[in-house]
Amino acid sequence: MNRKGVTYDVGIYPFGEARPSRPHFDPGIVRREIEIIRNDLHCNAIRIIGRDLDRLVIASEFALERGLEVWFGPGYHDADEQQTLAYFSECAKAAEALRLKSPNIVFIAGWELTFFMKGLVLGDTGSQRIEAFMKPWRLLWSAARIGPFNRNLNRFLAKAAAEVRRHFHGPLTYASGSWEEVDWTPFDFIGLDCYRDAMNKKVFLQNLKKYFTHGKPVVLTEFGCCTYRGAEDKGGYGWAIVDWSAQPPRLKGSFVRDESVQAGYLTELLQVFVDEKAEGAFAFTFVMPKYPHSDDPSLDLDTASYGLVKSYADRMGTTYPGLPWEPKQAFDAVARFYREL
């Protein structure tokens, strides 16, 4: 596996403006975290995601300076087709300016767009579109009204790839959800957000192998696990145990925090990806500031976090002084795997 990576979030808005994933962006902290990703986590690639173009560029410049290959991942959630194409156009220009300084950059033309973009599936918000996939009658209604989602997706991706390539002259991919059937013709890499859970565990390897039949390198653009017993069975939906309507936000019920679950899940999947000869993989995710740790188990939102580090809301860590987090078992496990690989 040539690309040993981690996802690094500079600020997305998956559930609206009120819940940014990274409320505060401190370039000094970002620079230090990227140094740690390179030197201590032993990554040679980083998937940088976010909406704000200035943040994406700043973080990418830091990463390129440290010798990391940057997978440039702009995401404008709940935008329609025209807004998304215009946004990708501006991002592609910025990515090309970076590429002219360093060739080590790949453009990701969105991720899981049937969830996060308007117009491919009926629903004004990401939550509504996700719900449509959980209720077959709603998905059928959507197909009857605006057409099958895979047809809509591939029509859009063809336009998006052409628009990005007008401005960006490096490699291109898309980070697909496992429910999406993508026409990979316009792309250089096959990108898959890949979560194993109780529903797909028996067919996980069989499904994964299908992506290696297209004659293009396969990269696992996202995979991860939360930090509690049972999270390994929930995969990409493990985060949904937080009651955000409560003040302060708290867990929905009783969950047993267990860092070993997350660490084991990540290393098991990494070994699968190595065995299947994947080109690369990006663990999701480095840090989740909106899910801080608390000594009160009911308020410990880090339990629902995919972060390799345990974020703090009100104090600094000691392992890396000056940074508001501490490494979890997952950090050490991934670092060890990447170092040995």
What labels describe this entry?
single chain; 341 residues; alpha/beta; TIM Barrel; eight-stranded parallel β-barrel; two-stranded antiparallel sheet; 12 strands; 37% helix
Order of helices and strands: EHEHEHEHHHHEEHEEEHEEEH
Radius of gyration: 19 Å
Structural class: alpha/beta
> What about the largest sheet?
8 strands, parallel, barrel
Overall geometry: globular
Helix share, percent: 25-40%
Cα separation of the termini: 8 Å
CATH secondary-structure class:
Alpha Beta
Number of distinct beta strands: 12
Which residue ranges are poorly predicted, with pLDDT under 50 across at least 5 consecutive positions?
Answer: none
Query: Would you identify the CATH architecture?
Result: Alpha-Beta Barrel
Explain this structure to me?
The strands form three sheets. Strands 1-2-3-4-5-6-7-10 form an eight-stranded parallel barrel, surrounded by four helices. A two-stranded antiparallel sheet has the order 8-9. The protein has a two-stranded antiparallel ribbon with strand order 11-12. It has one domain (3-340): Glycosidases (TIM Barrel, Alpha-Beta Barrel), CATH 3.20.20.80. It has 341 residues and is of the alpha/beta class. The model has no long low-confidence stretch (mean pLDDT 96). It has helices at residues 27-39, 53-65, 81-101, 113-116, 126-134, 136-146, 149-167, 204-209, 259-275, 329-340, and strands spanning 3-9, 45-50, 69-74, 105-111, 172-176, 190-193, 218-223, 242-243, 250-251, 280-283, 309-311, 325-327. Helix 1 packs across helix 2 (53-65), helix 3 (81-101) runs parallel beside helix 7 (149-167) and helix 5 crosses helix 6 (136-146). It is globular. 37% of the residues lie in helices and 16% in strands. It contains ten helices and twelve strands.
